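Figure caption, in words: inputs first, then the predicted bound structure.
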Amino acid sequence: MIEMVHVSKAYNESPRVLLDITLKVDKGKFVYLTGPSGSGKTTFLKLLYAAERPTEGEIQVNGFRLSRLKPREIPHLRRSLGVVFQDLKLLPRWTVSENVAFALEVLGVPRREILKKTPEVLRLVGIERKGKCFPSQLSAGEQQRVAIARAIVNNPLLLLADEPTGNIGLGATEGILRLFDEINLRGTTLVLATHNYGLPAMLPKERIVLEGGRIVESSLPNPATLIGESGIRYVAPPRT
Ligand SMILES: Nc1ncnc2c1ncn2[C@@H]1O[C@H](COP(=O)(O)OP(=O)(O)O)[C@@H](O)[C@H]1O
Ligand SMILES: [Mg+2]
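Bound structure (adenosine-5'-diphosphate present):
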């Protein structure tokens, strides 16, 4: 599903954003990517949806080898995954339904199917009665659900979420985590980036900890067969 081997990312202004990342995330996993602000979480996700290219190393996502990906192949990769952006990127002048439907329209999905799928996904994320509202009329937690609905309406293999509980209270956070759990149980692999170390305690799942661009702790199987010794502290996987 996801494989990264010796991946590093540098920008001119920030030469050490991600350093020698090697890991494998199997299909069906729910993985928290935790770490303090500035540790490289957002950049990590950007590499996976090919918004950025690694400076070094190999990345495979959903069977696509990203280092060999041609620009015209990027839409194929993007179609196989969903992204919940930290700033949501909802269109303020469009209704909730229109925001979600748009994700299907750009893929050329037939109108009849869009009319069927949009209310279905709004029901799944628990905002079926908000379809005609504009984003500004919703609570922060509801807006987050719209962004999640839009990201999953095309049934992606992989869902990437960047700080999806960053702007909401504790009660709404628990609800959002339960929703992610349900989406994951339906078969979507999930990587959730968060600086909130409390989330894995609320809903125990696999965990990777980034510090200064390096993985310092991981509950995923040790990919030593890929790289040999790494200096990562491997911890027990979550009990399910
Ligand atoms: N486009 C960019 N150009 C230069 N530096 C960047 C860019 N994006 C991120 N960085 C730097 O990379 C580091 C990690 O950022 P980021 O991936 O956003 O971390 P996190 O999401 O964990 O807060 C930070 O020091 C940040 O300033
Ligand atoms: Mg970030």
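The first strand starts at residue 2 and ends at 9.
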